[in-house]
Design a protein that fits this description.
- By secondary structure, the chain is of the alpha/beta class.
- The protein is built from 18 helices and 20 strands.
- The longest helix is centred in the last third of the chain and has 15 residues.
- The two termini are 53 Å apart.
- The structure holds S-adenosyl-L-homocysteine.
- S-adenosyl-L-homocysteine (SAH) binds next to helix 4 and strand 10.
């Protein structure tokens, strides 16, 4: 079975559910250049991934070779995903591939995608149709040479077309396109727009007149992929533009926490309009279940108090419980404490509502919040990171508790690859969510760029940052991810030059 699948215009969030399902179950994926970053991340480990796109100028594989390959793989009974940018049937040569498959008798399915000609204008605040401004829209290829007599484009008809003209692949030919349209009678003063890398971080939009847009595009050095659009709807950008108005638009925010934990922070930052640079400096390394953790699990029902200082601690303790054939019920006799809402959230997922969560999310505050809990002469479990501070277990021991201080994981350095280092270079904000993110980033030799603002989750992390020679520009008031995002956003807003 062959699937002709549209991957959308570039923003990974615009991939369809069906496309992700098919990618996740493919035997082979034949993909083009213009697919969203990370589009292949969900492919099964054994899948054959093959680039068949065409570089401008040179072809990796001719269209005939691609068609033949699709037929061959389809006949071999493979699940083949032919993944294309945008929609497969809009200037994607998907029609030709479908014809080849039909002719060969190979079964196929077509999965439409969000096409760039609609999506890039939408992200620029330009609706391609509008009740007052355009009651039709034409998708036009700008690829062919408008000077050739055999041009398939009817310039007179396009000039007369009563609606928005959207040109794909036309950025290099824009001067000729504009000239042809005007020569054929289209109003040179009509609004026009060009959108470069639509829906990607760093999308650029330029609005002008039909007569003037090509010059603007040249001056701004617009590069493909870009969409050119002609029509009064382009004027609506002034009112409708939304992307640029998001609070973190234009910011590149580096996230140094472990990749496995980065997603909630990254998602929130992206929703606020930031480009996120994932530059994980650390990785969570579970410690062996044997030894102290095993002993703790074996006597779990003896604890009067169980303290968790991170979501990882929760996750790993419950994994160890499960491995021992037990579950959340074995925590029933204990008072359960979480250092903050993230940890409490992880507990909730495991079926436990934390009894104690301090108002400030640092060990000292947890110690205080635990004062009413009777611990003298009783057994207490602290499940934590190997490198965590001793504040909590020491305070509990000081109150006469018998503390099992169990390291369930350690934080180790994650080597920063070339791409991560390059991304870090571009950061306007660098976020640190723990002392270990600071320490391991600085030990890796990578440095936040001098112009970047340094954001810390709280006083302990800030102190570590200062020790490493960094100046903390922003410190979260509430020491969790929400607090960090709020503080960063407020800082960005306060520095924004009013338009
Ligand atoms: N099948 C694709 C189009 C392929 S033709 C679709 O439906 O979107 C390639 C052209 O699409 C590019 O030359 C450019 O004009 C346009 N394009 C693709 N992605 C784009 C993007 N993110 N921003 C602007 N234009 C884009």
């Amino acid at each position: 079975m062959v699937y002709l699948v549209g991957a959308g215009p570039g923003d990974p969030g615009l991939m369809t559910r069906r496309s992700l399902e098919l990618i996740a179950s493919a035997d082979a994926i034949l993909y083009d250049r213009l697919i969203p970053p990370g589009a292949l991340d969900g492919a099964p480990p054994g899948a054959e991934l093959r680039y068949v796109g065409k570089e401008p100028g040179a072809a990796a594989l001719s269209q005939e070779e691609t068609n033949d390959l699709l037929v061959e793989l389809g006949r071999a009974g493979k699940r083949v995903v032919r993944l294309k940018g945008g929609d497969p049937f809009v200037f994607g040569r998907g029609g030709e591939e479908a014809e080849a498959l039909a002719a060969a008798g190979v079964a196929f399915e077509v999965v439409p995608g969000v096409t760039a000609g609609v999506a890039a204008p939408a992200y620029a605040g330009i609706p391609v149709t509008h009740r007052d401004a355009a009651s039709a829209v034409a998708f036009v290829t700008g690829h062919e040479d408008p000077d050739k007599p055999e041009s398939a484009l009817d310039w007179d008809a396009l000039a007369r077309f009563p609606g928005t003209l959207v040109f794909y692949m036309g950025i290099k030919k824009l001067p000729l396109i504009a000239e042809r349209l005007v020569a054929a009678g289209r109003d040179p003063g009509e609004a026009a727009a060009v959108i470069e890398r639509g829906t990607h971080p760093g999308q650029r939009t330029f609005v002008g007149t039909l007569a003037g847009i090509a010059e603007r595009v040249e001056a701004e050095e617009v590069r493909p992929p870009a969409i050119a659009l002609v029509g009064p709807v382009a004027e609506l950008r002034e009112t409708i533009a939304w992307l640029e108005r998001r609070p973190l638009h234009g910011e590149v925010v580096a996230v140094t926490r472990a990749r496995a934990q980065a997603s909630s922070l990254a998602t929130r930052l992206r929703e606020l309009g930031a480009e996120v640079a994932e530059t994980p400096a650390i990785r969570i390394q579970p410690l062996s279940v044997e030894g102290a953790l095993r002993a703790a699990v074996d006597r779990i029902e003896e604890y009067a108090l169980i303290c968790f200082t991170s979501p990882n601690g929760v996750r790993l303790l419950f994994e160890a419980l499960a491995a021992a054939g037990s579950d959340a019920r074995s925590l029933a006799p204990a008072t359960v404490a979480a250092i903050g809402p993230g940890t409490a959230g992880a507990l909730k997922e495991a079926g436990i509502v934390a009894d104690v969560v301090p108002e400030r999310f640092v060990a000292e505050a947890l110690v205080e919040a635990l004062e009413p809990v009777a611990v003298e002469g009783r057994r207490v479990l602290v499940a934590r990171a190997a490198e965590a501070r001793d504040v909590l277990p020491e305070a509990l021991r000081g109150r006469g508790a018998e503390v099992d201080d169990v390291a369930v994981y350690e934080t180790v350095a994650e080597p920063l690859g070339e791409a991560c280092r390059a991304a870090l270079e571009r950061a306007t904000y660098v976020t640190f969510t723990s002392s270990s993110t600071v320490r391991f980033l600085m030990e890796s030799g990578a440095r936040p760029p001098a112009s970047a603002r340094i954001v810390s989750i709280g006083p302990v992390t800030s102190a570590t940052a200062e020790e490493h020679g960094l100046t903390v520009d922003v410190q979260a008031e509430q020491h969790d991810i929400d607090g960090l995002v709020d503080a960063l956003t407020a800082d960005a807003q306060s520095r924004r030059v009013p338009a």
